[in-house]
Structures are given as structure tokens and as C-alpha cells.
Amino acid sequence: MNPKQSGRRRFLKDGVALAGLAAGALAIRSASGQTLGSANDQALEGTPGISEGQHFDAVYGVRSRYETAGRIGGIGAYSTGPDGKVIRPYIGGLTPVQNLIGIITPSALHYHNTHGYPPPDIDPQQHRLLIHGMVDRPMIFTMDDIYRLPSVTRTHFLECNANGNTTPPRLAPGATAQITHGLMACSIWTGVRVSHILEMVGVQKGASWIVAEGAEGAHHSKSIPLEKIMDDSLIVYGQNGEAVRPEQGYPLRLLVPGYEAINSIKFLRRIKVVDGPYLQQRETNAYQTVVQAGKYADGKARWFQFELGPNSVITRPSGGQRIGTQGFYEITGLAWSGAGAIRRVEVSTDSGRTWKAAELQGPVLPKAHTRFTYSWKWGGEETVLLSRSTDERGQIQPSLAEVGKIWDVTVDYLKKSTVGHTNAIQPWKVAADGRIYNAIV
Amino acid sequence: MRSSNLLVVVVALAACAAATAQTSPYQNIGRPATAEEIQAWDISVSPAGKELPPGKGTAKEGAPIYAAKCAVCHGRTMEEAGPLGPALVAKKGGNLRGTIAAWPYATTIWDFINRAMPRFNEGTLKADQVYALTAFLLYRSGIIKEDDVMDAKSVTELQMPYRNAYVPSDLAEIGNIKKRGCYLGHCPGPNPTAAH
Questions:
Q1: Shortest CA distance to B171 belongs to which of B106, B97, B105?
Q2: How many whole angstroms separate alpha carbon A326 and alpha carbon A382?
Q3: What is the pLDDT confidence band of residue B189, given thresholds at 50, 70 and 90?
Q4: Cβ within 8 Å of B, A 333-392
Q5: pLDDT digits (tens, 9 = 90+) for A131-148
Q6: Which one of A330, A374, B86, B101 is at 20 to 30 Å from A122 when CA atoms are compared?
Q7: Cβ contact (<8 Å) for B108 and A281?
Q8: ipTM for the whole predicted complex goes beyond 0.90
Q9: What CATH code would you report for B51-165?
């Protein structure tokens, strides 16, 4: 609400808001926009949506107009035009992780990558899921069929294989956490166990993989080991208390927890049970790791890496932010691992010389974002803040130099080439004036 | 008497099994898919090529199809990224990554053209056209000759030059990330005992 509005206008509007809440259900059902009473007619007119001059939406709520965090373009996909405005072709968007509170990413801020194929406009009544291949009873399910089956709700992160990789924007001193780690999000997903549906169709002996396929233009397709699918994978229709958003695969998506998100097929329309990987496009010519120096000077590609390693990032304070006066600050961030739950997060406030345990805020859930906090007193000194996580398997998040050791390459090499699937410790430099800079290099 | 008792037990067990099947708690959820429906939907092509349809084509036949349907996005030279699509053929001595020559299986090329191309009109190419475009891309990548016929058999049997550049190269080993020595999210990763 505009604070300059007169007290009388504010009073009227607040009154309308209360009346709107009370009469909301009736107003929604009233297709003809039937009136509810003289004073309220005008405010309810035009819903759904925000009536002119209103700062809220009584039908499908919006956040305060003072909250402006949004997704920004994917790495390399967007640029700044001559007028200084960001050109935003519909290719994808990064989660503003530095603005997240708690462990859940609002669906509207969940990163997305369309690979050039915007979400199809799918009528759930028309959507079908076919299960076939090495099964006894090939079957077709409607959405109503899926809704009838026993459901489960799980909190899981999704992370792109490119999150945190070594592209130039991610290495820039001015990079925000959104640029360095925006290709991830965490939601509460609701759906059906894939194992449940596969038991209904009867998986045949000798089957060891599935091929899952989406309904969008390119029918993105991926091979996934049957063992993982039977273990913990879901077919989800719910995200954070409502239907999965179009950018996330409405009306149905596969969810393969802890694996590169390219496996979590959106707009899921078909699962074929098979006896080996099908070598689809995004598991052969893309999504491999090629290292052309050091140990792997042969230029060989490591493919089907699947599981995402232990990872963490401090989200506040983080790149592009500025802290003010000296004194107390809560350092907070997110930790996650494709291997399971986060067991420990350590924070260093002295450029990595000493590490101390951060507090895990909870809930601490497997293959989900875990919020950590650490109490810090800033004395105005220049320093570097870092975090590193340990997961339930005992894996400790590596530094960029340690990632280099895994590949037997130098940090300089990592900086020059785009190596995906990189879970390096993220350092944030605190300048004497309180400004925070990306210090990955 | 003994044998008739046994018979009773067997019959009873069989009846019990039938009753269990009939009273599945999820009866009437979903319906059987017909062979025709599966055939119409199933566009997956395995490296064994068993789903490849009849048909054939050569690079000569593929060239005009490329010019008419593909060049608008991928560009005429194929060596430079086009307005919407990536480069498909590496320049002499250039980086092969992402180009057709580096794809490990020709079946993947056929599958991807068939399912995802041409952009905005996906799924409109006929099998012969997909074979011809596959042949054209392979020819322009220096892997086959201009007159070589690509069909289900030759696409499946073609040995791509970088087939063994993918680790692990044995497809049977791919599924088990533990056996592959994956650690810290990297395959292969460092020895767990050596880390930290």
C-alpha cells in the first residue's frame, strides 16, 4: 500500500480486503461477476488478478511489491541489450538463492532450463502416461488414475549438472550466489512411487534400466538405472502444496532424487522398461565431463555421472551484498548432497585457516537443501567466508583445487574450461568497506 | 487318499492365487495399452537398433532435405553455429566436442533427429528422410561416403570414431556408480581414504 494514501482511502481498502476474504469463495465461483454489495463491487471487479491500485490479490496471492527477487537468465543464454535492459529469450532462469529463506524454494523462483523448448500447454484431462517395454502388462494411466494411487510427499533438491561450474560469469568477482549456484532449488514434492506403478505393470526378468520421456516438442529422453528408480524415485504432480508448475513439468514429472536434474523428466508421458542404457542425446553428446589435460589428456568423456556430490554455499552474506556496521551477523547458507542427508557443515570466517561447526537449522532431510547458520562478529577486517559440507556417507565437499586433483588438472585449467558437475567450496571475500565479492579464483 | 488331499490343496492354492490377482487393490486404475498405441508412441531407439523402422537414405538424398528443413537454424556451412542451432561439423583441426563426429552411436543421431527435429515441426520427418539426414551428417563429418546407404542395419553396425572415448566404454558397467569408483560426485573420484 502506498503510504501516502489518505487514511480514509486506506480504511476503505482494508475494509474491502476483509470483505473480500469473507466473500472470496463466492466471488471466485461467480463467473458472471455477480455483485456482493454496493461498497465491495469495485474492488472485486476484475478478479482474478490485482485490481488497479491494490497491493494484493484476493484470489491467487502475490508477494509484497517491495519484494523483487526474481529468476534471471541462464548462463550464456541472456545478454544486456543496447538500452541496458536484459534480453530475456525464454530459455531458462536461475534461482535467486541469496534471497531464499529456509529450505524451500518458492515454485515461482525455482530455476528452469527449457533447452529451447518452452513448457507445453498441457490439459491434464488429455495427458496420458504409458508404461511399456519389458513389462507383463503395458498400461496407460490418466491423471485421475495417478491421483487415485497411494501418494507420498518428499522434500528434495533439484540441481543442474552445470550448477557451480567454471564458466566465466560464475568466476567473475561480481558474481552473486544466483550466478554461482542458481541452477538449483528445493521443493516439497507429492506423487506416486515409480516402484508402485512398475509393480502394477509387472517388470520382467532381465530388465535393468528405464527410458523416460517428456511430452514437450523435443521429447527429452533419458536412461536411468532401474535400481535407482525402484529405490526412491517418484512420479510427482504436486509441488509446494499445489500442482507442479509448467516450468517444472506440469502436469507430471519424474523425480530422481540426488541425481543430476536432467534425469527428472518433465511433462512425463512415457516410461519404457529396458535392459540397458539407450544412449540418448543428453547422455552422449551432452552432460558428460571432458577433461583434456592432465590424467585425461586423451580427451575422454566421463558420462552418466548421475549422483551429485556434497555441496554448500553461504547465501548471506554473499556476492553483490554489502554488510554495514561492525558487529553481529548471522551467516546462513544451504548445504545438500545427492548421497543423502547432510551430517555436518563447517564455516570458516578467516579465509580457511580455521573451520568451526555451523548449526543445522533443520529439518535435515536426505537429498534436500539443509539450512545452516553461524554466528559471526565482524570487526571490520578483510576476510574470506567459506562453507563446506559433509554428508551421511562421510564425503567432504572439495575445494576447487581438490576438484582439480580429482581430474589431475590445475585450477587454471578448470578456470579456462567448462567442467560441469563441480561441487567446489565457494569463497566469499569481505572487503574492508563491507562489500562481498566472489573469490572462487 | 493322500494324492486326492494333495490335489485339493493344489486346487485351493490355485483358486487363492486367482482370487488375489482379481482383487488387486488397484484394479481398474489405468487400462491396458494396445500394441498399436505402443507402436505409435514408442520413438526410443536403442544402440542395438531393434526399434529402427524400415527405410533407407543416402547423403545425396539428405543434402536437399538439410537445405530445406535444417539450414535455417543450423546454418548452411554446418561448421559455424547457425541462428538457432549449434555447429554440426567440426572445422579442420577444430574441437570435436558436441559435433556429430563425436557422438558415440549413430543410433543416437537417428533417434534425436526423429524425435526432436526439425525445431517447431518435430516428428514430421518420414523414416527415409531421417535415414537420409543421418547419412548426410555422417558424410559431412567424414565418417561415411556420399553414396553409402543408411538403413536399420548400417546405422546400427556403424562404428563411430570416438565410440571408445566415453568412460566407461562398456555399457554394462554404466549403471553401477559404486563399482565405477564414483566419489564426491565424480566418476571416477579420488580414493575415499585418500580424501582429506
A1: B105
A2: 12
A3: confident
A4: 337-338
A5: 999 999 999 999 999 999
A6: B86
A7: yes
A8: no
A9: 1.10.760.10
